């Protein structure tokens, strides 16, 4: 039964926003990159560039911290931290592993530059400029230290010059990559702000300014959606057209501001008294529309009657001598196959009848 109601509600912006909460991946891209690094070490081992012990120790180290971050993400512990994405500790762990392996196994230095750049690329969009710059300087200094330490042992020959050249390339490309990353970050922030603005305008475009309820255009779209949903599921829904009695007189005697207060206050109690699944809006002037999914005529009349009674208890003594208002309501149940305009016309006929029979009542035309 709730399916139709949910399908109807699916058109509402609140629903559109629901489910947008992002979930962080449990195996992060940084962890995946480190696993790829471990795989490249296997090739070094396979080709005989590094020993089996070094490979196993390095791979176990990578696997160890990847599993540790996996456990943190799975347990939800990351949500309690200042940056739940844990980008800095992950990048730190990846870089420290790579530098250590490059120090212990000089032949792996060739893998250092590309993997370092990839690790940094995950941080440039998330970390502040000062943090990423500091991290880059630390990496460059450590890398230079490794090259010099190896030179102390192996001498300052071709190997040293090649290592220095590699370091120089990294020293040039890293700042450039940080600059590009910062531009992407700015673009991301602009996009996010634009999306929020769009959502704001989208929300405003479907609301009535005075009451905050859905406006006529949105009501008509919701009615059409309700009709299609009912056609597909052979369920039904009902419609109430609600009109404030002698509203023109209120305006004429007490002014438009008093009239506005009446509309606003009524909208508030009407919104509070309907179910979450019901769709309430201002159809125009002093006329409101209530769409009741999964509700037959009898149920709709009960809803309308309750609303009529609630409205009678509203006290407007602060804005006009006439303390109370009354409502006339026309109700109609959707007939399979009929057009939305016909349904509205039948509810309107009920409303007309309520007015004819003396107002302050709920009527329908069968
Ligand atoms: N204050 C205020 N008045 C509005 C607004 N929109 C429409 N109106 C007025 O609402 C009044 C609607 O009156 P009607 O529905 O025609 O007549 P009524 O006095 O309610 O009479 P019955 O419906 O027969 O009881 C008109 O005077 C409009 O000018 C608004 O946003 N604020």
TrEMBL record:
GO terms for biological process: cell adhesion involved in single-species biofilm formation; negative regulation of bacterial-type flagellum-dependent cell motility. Keywords: Membrane, Transmembrane, Transmembrane helix. It catalyses: 2 GTP = 3',3'-c-di-GMP + 2 diphosphate. GO terms for cellular component: plasma membrane. It holds the Pfam family GGDEF. The chain crosses the membrane at residues 24-46, 52-73, 85-104, 134-152, 164-181. InterPro entries: Diguanylate_Cyclase, GGDEF_dom, Nucleotide_cyclase, Rev_trsase/Diguanyl_cyclase. The keyword Transmembrane applies. Its EC number is 2.7.7.65. SUPFAM superfamilies: Nucleotide cyclase. It comes from the Bacteria. Residues 235-366 form the GGDEF domain. The keyword Transmembrane helix applies. This is diguanylate cyclase. The lineage of its organism: Bacteria, Pseudomonadati, Pseudomonadota, Betaproteobacteria, Burkholderiales.
